[in-house]
């Protein structure tokens, strides 16, 4: 097959390339790409002025601030504590370690709506945790941050864990023989080695938090200009049959998401190069 | 089956890994492709097998052009450097694989397959290990399973890619004598790739020395040692001990 | 021959060693590891963080579900709207998972076993639904199939309902779960290389034979885990389905949407009762993952991308 020869960079005796690639592209095209293109195409039917007016209207901008800000904060917290959790899981032995390790994946497996109502109830003023806190968490931007931290929890842990596991002990032993304290070893030897994974995990958590809906919508309070997240605004516009407005905001979110996806891929390529692959 | 390679060229980018190679292997011969890394020996082997296609030149089996024949139809046995055993199958299932995937018309019965597997296990001295999995075997044992698997389909040509490269020195020495003995029993045309001069000298009927994609010299082991044709051959074989002839080895080992 | 064979059996062949194992604490201390009190503090901090954000929220679901007693719990689950929601959820998952399984295998085969131009672009495309907000996932299907959408007029003329009906829900669910199985398979199959498949080809196997007898058995645990995760996500999807469903109780509500309705109606116990069902599913998912990992680590052949 000449097309096969054109596409393949290296000769392969294995069959099924055309079939597999063809099916993959068709599937992706119909399920993902063509529907996604609808956002772009629909937005082009709107005049530039109208588009700009929608996406920078005060209410929408307030939602950007909240969504972006809370996602960033949540990802930062997850970066720090995710590293801690990964470290503790890889390096130490304690009772229930395997259980804790498995539970880290809970945010992946638990439906967002379930997480949403659970967190809301927990952090409400009369909730188990909420009653001990000096500030109101549920129905405020703080609650949004809590929900987004939950959502992003596994990302940093799971990207850092394998790297930690593969780290050669000899590196630390060498540092020790050279007189470095534990803290110095951590800061100068381990952290740089973990940096790419940490960054990747952070970016993944951030990207996930940006688009999150189900777990946030219950705890957010949803007051315009105060505690509305951007995905909610899209739904609000849809309910008002303002398709053009909805797609305009969606376009902004998509561009941000793609930029982050690109960033993640670049980070991973950089990490691979650093490790000499 | 005799092999003829005519004016074979293979390039990767600007580098000619095989540069206008021509070679003949007679029916029943055991030939070593010897050379340092980058000399093109593995590429040549893979092209003969059909795992790679040349940019120019042709490969003939028994006088017939097989250059475009797919690997599946070439009836060659290939032994990979790292064995490529099917990890989730038993030794017996690995060996039987080539027979089990035959189309229904030519597939032997399960009983015939089992008999063949038993026969091969005995040949490679692994009887009793039929139900083990590859990860339970030593490197030398895995290599013998890989060989048995390749032989099960009764290939007309046996190709081995650095067959003992991944084993440690002592096992390597024992296995190379064993391979020579096997060849003497089975008489299948065989070509193997190695970078180890001692190995090539000890095992092969004829040695082909490759360097940067070209054949420097070919001939019987003694010829190469006594009359090296180029400075490279002289240097490359310089450290090789004068080997006993394969026949002397066989007599030494028998009994 | 027998003498050589015996000698050979006595020798252990040396292959590349396995990856370094975690050190026992004793060796770690000798290597200049942290003092015990530091270790204890760090473990405590990590567990406190996890408790706050993970363990306690999980517990809340089950406690609140049974807060009003067993009868209320059972009534909530047996209620007709809840059952309808359950059926719809199972249907959506039952369609998405097999479809994405076939896609995952096809994509992994093309990407992992062949070297072609544009492979990294394809990889990024496979990951795309992962980075798109679920609300946008629902939105795009509204744009295509909604009344004002591309196919809207055609659908109305032929009296076919996609959005605000079951097909739309299924489509949205498929969209958000596309990458799950592929992401589990691709890195593993890439790491395993093509040598075994090449060997099988030399031995005369056809493409399907190679896939079925060689490739898939080598990735069976990763495949299983991907299916489990895909199913969990399919059953729990909320945002995307929320947009396309129209929230018609009893007809276009999935379990997560039903939870939302109950919660907004202040029927907290009922909402948590239904939620406990999904939380239990999540726990089953995690348990299955543990089992899969244990099996995968028991066999020295790397059959899963997760080694702990």
Describe the structure.
The complex is a heterotrimer of chains A (277), B (255) and C (308). The relative contact order of chain A is 0.13. In chain A, 74% of the residues lie in helices and 0% in strands. The radius of gyration of chain A is 23 Å and the shape is globular. With 277 residues, chain A is an all-alpha fold. The mean pLDDT of chain A is 87. In chain B, 36% of the residues lie in helices and 24% in strands. Chain B has nine helices and ten strands. In chain B, 50% of the residues are buried. Chain B has a six-stranded mixed beta sheet with strand order 6-7-8-3-9-10, sandwiched between helices. In chain C, helix 3 crosses helix 16 and helix 10 packs antiparallel against helix 13. Chain C is mainly α. The N terminus and C terminus of chain C are likely disordered. Classes of the chains: A mainly alpha (277), B alpha/beta (255), C mainly alpha (308). Chains in contact: A-B, A-C, B-C. Chains A and C meet through helix 2, helix 4, helix 5, helix 6 and helix 7 of A and helix 3, helix 5, helix 6, helix 7 and helix 9 of C.
Descriptive keywords:
heterotrimer; A: 277 residues; mainly alpha; 12 helices; 74% helix; B: alpha/beta; 6-stranded mixed beta sheet; 36% helix; disordered C terminus
Morphology of chain B: globular
Task: Please describe the biggest sheet of chain B, giving its number of strands, its sense, and whether it closes into a barrel.
Answer: 6 strands, mixed
* Structural Rg of chain C: 25 Å
Shape of chain C: globular
Query: What gap, in angstroms, lies between the N and C termini of chain B?
Result: 31 Å
How do the helices and strands follow one another from N- to C-terminus of chain B?
A: EEEHEEEHHHEHEHEEHHH
Q: Estimate the mean pLDDT confidence of chain B.
A: 86
Can you count the helices of chain C? Answer: 16
Report the radius of gyration of chain B as a whole number of Å. Answer: 18 Å
Content of β-strand of chain B? 15-25%
Helix content of chain C: over 70%
Percent of residues of chain B in helical segments? 25-40%
- Please mark out the parts of chain C with pLDDT under 50 across 5 or more consecutive residues, or reply none: 1-23, 25-32, 302-308
Q: How much β-strand is present in the residues of chain C?
A: under 5%
The quaternary structure here is heterotrimer
* Helix vs. strand class of chain B: alpha/beta
- Strand runs of chain C, count: 0
Q: How would you sum up the major sheet of chain C?
A: none
First-to-last CA distance of chain C:
43 Å
Low-confidence stretches of chain B: 247-255
